[in-house]
């Protein structure tokens, strides 16, 4: 299946939904940079000595993402490089302009950003707020910048260990990512690499799998796409990624009247969380999933109106 770039993904969305054009055009430069930056950062990540820990099935089955055991202090220099590319675009966003003068020094010091990254990944709001206060920044503004900078660097680290190729999503056939090679070792609704929640889900294109008659027959395996680092992993179709409920009737679908391309909101009847998604079996090309999640903001609005909570709070779904 052909893969679309972030720009192509947003252009397709704007053609189908002209009302979203002003918002999508505003975020297009950031999405394009987010898509291109990980490959450019791979050398810097390799040179700094950072490496993701070896995959351990027992730890994975216990729900421990790889970054829990990683030494984030080694990523200071790659984070600086990512910040130089991303901050001019991030601080051009509405509400971020006034923080430009303080964000760049925060990342350039080389000490605060890895500590803040650990706080962000661990959900340590107190430490993140303290670091933001020291830098004279609001915590939400720092978190927004951190998510983008850290996400690009983590994706580069994944590329270093499981290099991508045009023919394979995770990498060459002889080097698949372990969570793809042994999906039963990772059954969580959060990212196996960084532990963040998914921003979008999809049913993959029809494949031939002699061990999976359902997928070969067109049923389609479900994937979740990490909102922070872009890692993707298999997940059970009838299970809520947030609360883990999986009995019949747990997930409901919300579709826009007249909507096309299998776009929908999957929401949990138990915890009221949701994730937007699509059925890629109905598409001729695979969209860039970060840009695609942004292009589904009309579904985020519909979900918000029903009192649902996004699995991954992002700048486009906080209403």
Any overview of this molecule?
- The chain has helices spanning 6-16, 21-47, 57-61, 76-90, 100-108, 112-121, 125-134, 139-161, 178-181, 213-216, 289-295, 297-305, and strands spanning 2-3, 198-203, 222-226, 232-235, 251-254, 264-268, 273-279, 285-286, 309-310.
- With 319 residues, the protein is an alpha/beta fold.
- The strands form two sheets. Strands 2, 3, 4, 5, 6, 7 and 9 form a seven-stranded mixed β-sheet that branches.
- Strand 3 and strand 4 form a beta hairpin.
- It starts with a strand and ends in a 9-residue tail after the last strand.
- The relative contact order is 0.13.
Which secondary structure elements does this structure contain, and how are they paired or packed?
Blueprint: E1 2-3, H1 6-16, H2 21-47, H3 57-61, H4 76-90, H5 100-108, H6 112-121, H7 125-134, H8 139-161, H9 178-181, E2 198-203, H10 213-216, E3 222-226, E4 232-235, E5 251-254, E6 264-268, E7 273-279, E8 285-286, H11 289-295, H12 297-305, E9 309-310
Parallel strand pairs: 1-8, 2-7, 7-9
Antiparallel strand pairs: 2-3, 3-4, 5-6, 6-7
Helix pairs in contact: 1-2, 1-11, 2-4, 2-8, 2-11, 4-5, 4-8, 6-7, 6-8
